[in-house]
Each structure stands twice: as structure tokens, then as C-alpha cells.
Specification:
- With about 80 residues, the chain is α+β, with helices and mostly antiparallel strands.
- It has one domain.
- It contains 2 helices and 3 strands.
- The chain has a 3-stranded antiparallel β-sheet, with helices on one face.
Amino acid sequence: MALRFIGIDPDTNSGNCPAVWIDDATREILVQGWNPDEETRARCGENSPMPDTEGIVRLPYRMVEIIRKACDEAEGS
């Protein structure tokens, strides 16, 4: 697996906050973020039931540009 770091939350203090990577082999986007509260998880599950192997990740709005960059790079732009 060839993971390429794209970016981290620009407001991080300690370097272990939400972050984004691209898997160059599969072109998949990987995200690290905060776990949602149970109410959010339940509301999301109403539209897309989640098995135990999946989860919801909450990312701050300030990471929109980093997420766009990851999407562009996954598309090969």
C-alpha cells in the first residue's frame, strides 16, 4: 500500500487531528477524523445502514480545500 499524505486540519495543535491520505495504488481516499455522537450515527444510519466494519467520520469545514485536493489527486488531475 502506497499512502500519500495530502493534508491535516490547518488548526491542529498537536499534529494528531483530522487528516487525509490517498492510496496511490487504488486511488482511494483515507480520512482520519472525530467519531460522531450516537445521535449523528443513528441519523446517518437511516439513509445508509452501517455494518460493524464501517463508520462515520466527522471533518471540520476548514478542511474543504484538503478534501478537494485529495479528490483531484485521486482523479489524476
